[in-house]
Predict the structure of 3-hydroxy-3-methylglutaryl coenzyme A reductase.
Amino acid sequence: MTMESEFSHFYKRTQQQRLSILQQTRGLTDEQRAILEAHEAHADAPQLIENTIAAYQLPEGVAVNFVVNGRDYVVPMVTEEPSVIAAASNGAKQLARAGGMTATVSSRLLTGQIVLSDVKVYASIDDWVALHQTELLETAAAAHPSIVKRGGGPKLVRTRDLGEGFVSIDLSVDVRAAMGANMMNTMLEAVAKVIQTKLHHTTLFSILSNAGDQSLATASCSIPIAQLAQEDAEAQLTATKMAQASQIAQLDPMRAVTHNKGIMNGVDAVVVAMGNDWRAIESAAHAYAARDGQYRGLSQWQVNGDQLVGTLTLPLPVGTVGGATTVLPLVAVNQKIAGIQSPEELMALIVSVGLAQNFAAIKALVTTGIQQGHMRMQLRSLAMSVGAQDHEIDDVVTQLKTHQDPTQTDAQQILTQMRK
Ligand code: NDP
C-alpha cells in the first residue's frame, strides 16, 4: 500500500482509528500506542487542529512576586525549559522590592494589508484610496458589524508604495479584546472586492500583518543600585556590567539574538498559557528588534545616578477572547489566576514578565554566570533522563553535584549504585 492510500481520508477517522493506522504503518509498539492514548486530546482539540492524535502536554507553573502598576500578580507560564519560572520569580522579587514595574500600552490596533501589483502610478492609487476612505471603512465595518457594536471596528486606511509596482493598502482596526486575525481577514477580503470592482485593479492578496507595531506595550523599572549586592562596590560594578551587557546587545546582533531569546523565554511562556499565537508574537518581536535595519536587543538597561533603569517595549497583539482562548479550558483558569481583566492588562503583564526575565538573566550573566542557576534543574533533568524516580531524584542530584562536569553516564552509574 502506498502512504497516500494508508492515510487516505485520515482526517475523517476517529482518534482510535488514527492510532491503529499509525501503529500498523509506523511500527509503533503497544507501549508507544498506550502513551498516545494516555495523552488523549481534550474533546475540543479537534476543533483547533486537523488529524489530531493526542494532546501534547507541556508543564505549567506560576511565576510569583510580580508587582506591575502597583498590583500583585501570579503569572501562569507554560514552558519546557528549566529555570525560566524560577528566574522570572526571582527577577520580579528584586524589582518588587524597588517598587515593582510600570507598564503602559500605547495603542491596540491591528493592521492588515491588501497588496496590489503592476501599479503604474502610485499617486493614482493613493489619491483614489484617500477619496474613498469613508466607503472603504464602511465596507470593512459591514463585513464584521459585531466588532463595531462592541465599540471597535475599522479606523484608518492608508497606502504605501512598496516599489517595483507593488502597493500596500493598509487597514487598521480596533479589534477590542480579540487578537483579531480572522475578523481582519474577513474585512480585508470585503475591501479587496471594492478595490477590484471600483478601482478596477486586481489584488495580489489580502491578509493581516503580524508586525504588531500599533500594539506596543512598554515596561520600565528603576532599581536602587545598592540593592544589587551586599557590598556597595560590588553593587556598583554589577550595575555597570549590566548596562554594558545591554549595550552589547544594541551593538552586536549575535549577542542580541540570545539577549532577546532570554526575554522571549518569559514572554512565550505567558503567551502560550493565555492561549495566544506565540508564532505571531515571536515574529512581531524580532521584526521590532530590527526596526532600524539592524537586529538589536529589545530591552535596555542604563545607570542613572544611584539607580539602574530598565525598559522593554514589545509589540503584543494578543487577545483575551476568541481563537484558542475560547476553546482551551485552561486559558480561562489561567486568566483567573493572573487576574486579567482586559487585553491591555494582559499586554502590560507580558511585557513586564519579559523585563523581569531579562533583569534576572543579565544579572546572573555578569555575576554568578548563567550555569549556576541552571545547574540544579539540569542535574534533575539528567537524573530523570536515566530513569530516576521521584523519590530517587534528590539523592542522584546531590551525588552529581560532587562531579566536575556531570554526564548522563555518571547519573546512570549513581542510580545503578543506589539501587543495589
Ligand atoms: P476569532 O475568529 O475567534 O474572533 C474573535 C471572537 O471573539 C469573535 O467571535 C467575537 O465575537 C468574539 N468576542 C467576544 N467578545 C469580544 C470582545 N470583547 N472583543 C472582540 N471580540 C469578541 O479570533 P480572532 O479573529 O481574534 O483570530 C485569532 C485566531 O486567528 C488565532 O487563533 C490565530 O492563531 C488565528 N490566525 C492567525 C493568523 C496570523 O497570525 N497570521 C492568520 C489566521 C488565523 P463576534 O463574532 O460577535 O464579533
